[in-house]
Design a protein that fits this description.
327 residues; seven-stranded mixed beta sheet; 7 helices; 19 strands; binds NADP nicotinamide-adenine-dinucleotide phosphate
Amino acid sequence: MEQVVIVGSGPAGYTAAIYAARAGYAPVVIAGSVTAGGNLVNTTEVENFPGFPEGIMGPDLMDKMAAQAKRFGARVVFDDVSRVALEGPIKTLATLGGETYEAAAVILATGSTYRELGLAAEKRLAGKGVSYCATCDGFFFRGKEVVVVGGGDSAMEEAIFLTKFATKVYVVHRRGELRASRIMAERAMAHAQIEFLWHSEVTDIKGEDSVEAVAVRDVRTDQTTEVAASAVFVAIGHSPNSEIFRSQLTHDSDGYIVVHGPAAPDEPGLSAHQATSLPGVFACGDVVDRTYRQAVTAAGTGAQAALDAQEYLEGLLADSVLAAQTI
Ligand code: NAP
């Protein structure tokens, strides 16, 4: 039986692994078979992770975190958790690869997945011009015109990145104001190849086997125009990857796992910020965080989750010593 199993391998999962490993718990990290490293693996330069004044490429940052966790004895397995039983003192996790892990404590750091527009044409043309990752697919649209949907940092990052390949990038945003941070918004708005279509939403994507045009409705006038484009990059945020835990853990209406948070000043006992509704189960990173969703905040809650798990395991040990003495 393992002492700590960590599910997920983004900044939260690997930071939890570094802390748990340094505390001597030899954690197992179930990293995902195709998603190891989390969302940062699909990003370009990360400029705001402290300690890298020149910036660092997302995949390099994740490789470094994995190496740091392994250095202290974390075991990383590239598999996907398919079933969990989290109640009771022994937690069980089964994987698609056919393994079963038992653990005294579990840390969930499964992150989030991109949101879809919900259009029928989006599904039909996915991989044929509809994409959720400019870093992965931007290269294919050299010399073409493309559309990015969204008004957050992801949309700005995608739009700026795509100007390396596309001759023109239209950003379709449903409001007249961006959600993106000021620095990213200013960079995108100052870019000669980027044009903003404000107060607009994508209502359809045209084309049989590839994207040819995008129907864009102005929500103020209800007028729809067609924008010729070879690709649509959807960057409208993420949803938490909590489906397989939801029946066992308290979660909010959007599926984010609810954690205890800071203790009230008069609250006795554990100060377990990352504790979920089940003892011995902790959660961190984007699967609990609808607000900040930064690599560095995910890493921070990953550290908290590992410290909370450590306190929980020490409590179990103290209880068993006490029970042995009583006998
Ligand atoms: P986000 O901040 O939640 O922004 C999502 C954007 O998509 C919003 O502008 C939203 O519009 C729009 N949107 C949502 N649902 C939509 C729908 N159904 N149809 C059309 N538009 C829709 O998500 P994000 O941009 O992925 O960023 C997530 C977090 O990661 C943020 O904290 C961000 O700062 C961070 N991030 C940072 C960087 C960086 O610093 N380099 C890069 C990427 C992400 P409204 O504005 O109207 O709600």
